[in-house]
């Protein structure tokens, strides 16, 4: 993190400050490291991921003591944070969009039991289809969770509000967890001039001692407490009433705290920021980053003689209704811009609350216009601000609102530009070659597979078209296509969110030649289970006869980029139900689609953006998950590992997987694939790296068929085993492990590889293991 570069000493307010030039995510991390929280439970999701990355880099360099806990998903990260806050420490987290919704169930639990913490919500589209850019649809889901919400229009506010938020959360009049909301990419990634406290001690003095007086927690053995009891009426409504009163008190407490902060720093954050509203006839109401742009528009209109003004709150929970009503009492018309829609509600959440505030305080004269704008990261320019003002000006001049609710910036569909099919569907006859035969062996209970020479299979059409956007040297598609060579006939494929999904489906194009489905990162296995069961039921009822189906589909779920971390629960559920489908994991050893953060499949000691290498940390600190063995423990009929470095083995296993998935039940397979970009390796070395991973016994090739383990390639018997260190030195992410200072980590990693390999050999030798 470059936070200590390009800084200038500044004296403003009563505390020593300095200037840095950093982004919103960097400033959230910087504030957290100055506070020196106890715990951060996190899970990577764009655009909030960088917050954990920056903190991990500072951790590797010994700049803070925060314990960073990588969870298996956002729901898990919220649980980590709740437990840590219940245990009496200071807790921090950051998330976005679908990740926030995944943890949503936990949010009212934490506020309802009154345990403080700070969560940075780096706002992003909650979407289907997938969009990773900024709007406020996740923020609006937060409105009813019982968390006070403060807003940040620029990186300076991100820094300041993160410090203010903790003091607000822990205030005895509040005692609630607080959300700090900033705009994804607009604020999170854009660098700006930011003033910070020079000395950490001044930050810690401002937020106060911990734990605050009277703070109850679960680690006080002399004062045992019960957290989250079962509660009937009237106790539950009374609890909610107390929480509600604390929320409303948060408005006054925030005002007091921000005034204290202003005395220290010279920076004010009034509950309602008003720009040239003293005599305004027309106004625009906006949140966060757009509220800065609209100020220039106000100045332009004032230069033309139009009395324009802008309103933007710095806190929206509690909603400053009385202050807004007061600010608008002489305004003739106001346009409220919502960066998210409340579908069917005739406007977004902010316009509804502004209208309610006006009605509550007796203002029936101000005309209110609702416009939805900027969804999915659509930029907001000065001309957009002028358009929002023009709606208000027109309403003022006419004396009524011609169109109370509409979208601004949407383009009506043009039927002449509808996407057209570029490639014709693949012919069944080309996919069903008859060159591969799979027959059950009644004596062994296994199946026998015969495959032709690989050159005979080259005429089978590829399931994924060329022209996708994968990085040079990416091993995903060569590995997938090799597996698909073993599949005869038609498939329906579901892809988890990840590199393979993102680079093949940029609308209006798709690289998928077979039917393709995408669902959320964690829920692919459950979704495909539903597809499988619907297929068999509709087939039973004769409803699919009209579609020319010549044989059953093979249903394949493709997962990677850590999808079997957040998606492990649904995958195990699907396995236990034994649906007739294949789960195929491409293992690139990280969350590569979000910037190479560690996943549970990242091996020990490997460098990622959340397991950095420095004087105080040598890469990932715990061992990788053996997903194949976990799935084998569910007693599904077939589990395998594969690699493009052993192509015939992988094709044979693909054919066997299809037979089991069509005739018996669920199959799980794992293929190791190269990621040159994030492994810091040469594009051309991918196959050699994978070959060394197999020959070092880090990634053994084997299968578990009806509970019996068979090693399908033994490098020791072939005389090809290589030292683990020889494999590690081929990648920039692991070369450090061959240095003396990381020798202990290397020894522990090598010992675990050897242990797992010996266990596997024992299982190979004994069918009852």
TrEMBL record:
This is Pyruvate ferredoxin oxidoreductase alpha subunit. Residues 31-257 form the Pyruvate flavodoxin/ferredoxin oxidoreductase pyrimidine binding domain. The keyword Membrane does not apply. It comes from Cohnella phaseoli. Belongs to the pyruvate:ferredoxin/flavodoxin oxidoreductase family. Residues 280-384 form the Pyruvate:ferredoxin oxidoreductase core domain. GO terms for molecular function: 4 iron, 4 sulfur cluster binding; oxidoreductase activity; thiamine pyrophosphate binding. Signal peptide: none annotated. Keywords: 4Fe-4S, Electron transport, Iron, Iron-sulfur, Metal-binding, Oxidoreductase, Pyruvate, Transport. PANTHER family: PYRUVATE-FLAVODOXIN OXIDOREDUCTASE-RELATED. One of its GO terms (biological process) is response to oxidative stress. The keyword Protein transport does not apply. Residues 552-657 form the Thiamine pyrophosphate enzyme TPP-binding domain.
